[in-house]
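Exam revision sheet. Question 4 asks you to relate a sequence to its structure. Input first:
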Amino acid sequence: MSESIFIYNALCLPAPDIEALVQGQIIAAIPRKLLNNGQKFALYPDDSSENLLSIEQYYCANFFPIAQSVLIQLNSQGNFNKLPLLSYKTVSIKAWAKCEQCQIIDRNNNLDILSQLTIWKPEVFEVILQKQPHIFLAYLRVYHLPQLCEIAANPNIQEKLGKFVSLPNSLTVSEAKPVLNDRTFAQRKHQLEKLESPLHPELEELQSAIASLSITQTAAKLLDDDIKVFLGWSSGKLIKQPNPDLAWINNIAKLGDRSIELEEKKSNYQAGTDFENVVRDSLELLGFTIDYTHKGGAGGLDLFCSKPYPLFGECKAGRKIPNDTAMQLLNLGMLRRPDLFNQAAKLIIGPGEPTTQLQDAAKIQGMAIIKPETLQKLVKLQSNHRNSVDLFKLKEYLKAGQSDEEVEKYIDQVYKEMSLRSQIITAVKQLFEQDNETAKATHPSFTVTEIRVHYNATHNPRLNDEVVHDLLIELSSPLTGYLGRIKGSDWNSDRFYFLRDLPIS
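Answer key, structure tokens:
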């Protein structure tokens, strides 16, 4: 259990700055005076600025939407051409911090790089340096409070920005809930101390582009959270908590065999429609583009996917698939899209073992047959590990006739490939931990050969340097972000370091 700590004062900072600290987007603040190492204090949010800059001038583009949202919440009637004045009687404190270091910044430092590593535009630093010879940059290790603390607002808070204010009552806190873990904070602190350029500016641009959408759209929020993990703005894992919007995945098989429909006493027509709908949702989640002009029903084609390649499908809910299903799909496909049908993929989805007659017809017509349970496994794989299903590779496993066994082979192959990558990541992580344990820790990065030797010591089949390097390049891509890469003069001198785990569910 973490030791209890008593805090008696708070550092007053702009509310958006505190939000950035709590989100892990920054690890520094700009106080008015030099802070002592180890100094502990709460973070007191203010919605005013001594610099009299508009928030567009004050905050970088990738943080501006969040800053604006924070200020709107604080004062719904504020004028956002300038940061609005405090207009309420209580303040919510949700975090405390410990000063790890306080650095003095002046015009001899690269203020453009400092801007890229924080949330403030270079103009902010220029305004401060016009008034004083240097800037105090405090590196803060931030911790969540166990619960929000409401206190009376300080009536003179505008005069306290960047300074300390006394708390009406002491706070009892602990280090149990840090915003960033030790390793992530150390990496970020080193980068800021050395004013090293951001590793993935393109990914930061993507985060900036979706920042405003993430406030109101769940899908954008999930992607935004993952990008922040990649960038090191969060030490969490990829979003893995159950998404209530995807609960239907667990019912694909039940809708196929109609066990749900029988319990709810639905008609045969409604049972068939429900299954068609869940199959369309499944294929769409896998990455197919559904043509919704084909919606099944009496005499209609159950489903047609136009991209990434044409796919015709027939859905049969119930205890078994009728013998004439293959001929039905053939007739409807040729009637609706004769220009595409012959060269397209063809899929029948239904429960039970197909009869010999249906098997023979499906093989002649090049139609794959899979059970709803198999479709459910595919969709769960894609849901748990986004973009893990390659639809073109999947197409190779959709063999004419009963294809469940072949599709299962593909699913197993995907898990095997992910497991290999997870083991490579673990090898890099173990090397880092061993360095720390032996007190060497001269660098957090390792060569391809070092990683390959460590991996081969405990895994089979053994890999060579070229294979390991290819995997390391893939895992250190900005769009995966499991490892970091320090590019060398050639591929064999590249170095890699651990960022986050790849859990296989």
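Marking note for examiners. The longest strand covers residues 135-152.
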